[in-house]
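Subject: Re: docking follow-up (nicotinamide-adenine-dinucleotide)

Dear J.,

Thanks for your patience while I sorted out the input files. As discussed at Tuesday's group meeting, I've set up the holo structure prediction with nicotinamide-adenine-dinucleotide included as the bound ligand rather than trying to dock it afterwards. The sequence and the ligand SMILES I used are pasted below, so you can double-check that they match what you have on your end before we go further.
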Amino acid sequence: MKNLLVFGVGLIGGSLALALKSAQAGWRVTGVGRTGDSLQEALNLGLIDAVSHDIALSASTADVIMIATPVAQIVPILHSIAPYLGSHTVVTDAGSTKADIAAQAHLILGKASARFVPGHPIAGAEKSGPTAAQASLYQGKNVVLTPDAHTDPDAINTIRNLWLSTGAVVREMDAATHDTIFAAVSHLPHLLAFALVDELAARPNAEQFFAFAASGFRDFTRIAGSSPEMWRDISLANRSALLQELDHYQHALSRLRSSLEQKDGENLLALFEKASHARNDWAQQQVNTLRKN
Ligand SMILES: NC(=O)c1ccc[n+]([C@@H]2O[C@H](COP(=O)([O-])OP(=O)(O)OC[C@H]3O[C@@H](n4cnc5c(N)ncnc54)[C@H](O)[C@@H]3O)[C@@H](O)[C@H]2O)c1
Ligand SMILES: O=C(O)C(=O)C[C@]1(C(=O)O)C=C[C@@H](O)C=C1
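The structure tokens for the complex came back this morning:
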């Protein structure tokens, strides 16, 4: 059995542990948590085989260390494990932002940074914690790895194989490209959903609005139920790309607003038609890709 040490046994870390167990991929999983209660819950749910209270011992005997905590916790955790890493230990993470962590990892881990393989599973949910973990979460989903020219190819293979065991499709790109793409397709939509729900909830007659909100509101705002801590950390870590995406979106809203002001139905129809085609094409491609995998 190989030893996997998971920092943060919540939705993402717990789902990885469950997926490896159900694939019988030969990993013994030990969890490290912030609160004892959540770790005990992970143990009771059978997500992990053991709990670690000795970081030095666990880090030195781990084959792989996965950091699956909110992104602001990743750098402090790298500091805490750096002195104890075994000579063969490969470190990876599941954070939703990549450039900030990659820059720090070189400074903190020194030579061992060659065995740090940053990663990001593109699968998730608005639910958090160990009870949200699912064995099938990564099945057919992309996992993006962002190694650089200094990353050890054997370490990349180790992390690639770990994710392949979960049924995921592994892709590689550089960290800056990753952060630009996910600012647009993940981080901005979360900000918009949080903003819409917050604005409505602050109205004196909010209850009346919520009482009649239906599937359109539910689909647009599902992700506003996500972990506030996780999204605070992501927003700050990918701040500059996210600010640019907010500018693009505000520009698009301004164009929409002036079409409305001018009662320009032709412009509205043209925009809705282009968006509807693009959205339906994307959804169809998702279905085709899932069928293929
Ligand atoms: N939720 C998603 O959809 C999703 C998808 C892909 C990647 N991610 C990324 O994965 C990471 C984990 O997200 P999640 O959804 O599993 O969150 P989660 O809240 O479900 O789990 C995070 C766990 O980390 C623990 N934790 C926090 N600080 C810690 C510390 N210092 N040491 C040890 N444990 C600590 C928490 O107690 C919690 O159990 C985040 O970086 C997030 O950006 C999330
Ligand atoms: O399905 C959801 O609830 C998600 O928000 C998952 C989602 C996404 O935006 O697609 C969220 C953050 C991650 O880093 C990756 C995936």
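A couple of observations from a first look. The radius of gyration is 21 Å. Residues 96, 122, 124-126, 186, 223 surround prephenic acid (ligand 2) (CB under 6 Å).

Let me know if you'd like me to rerun anything.

Best regards,
T.
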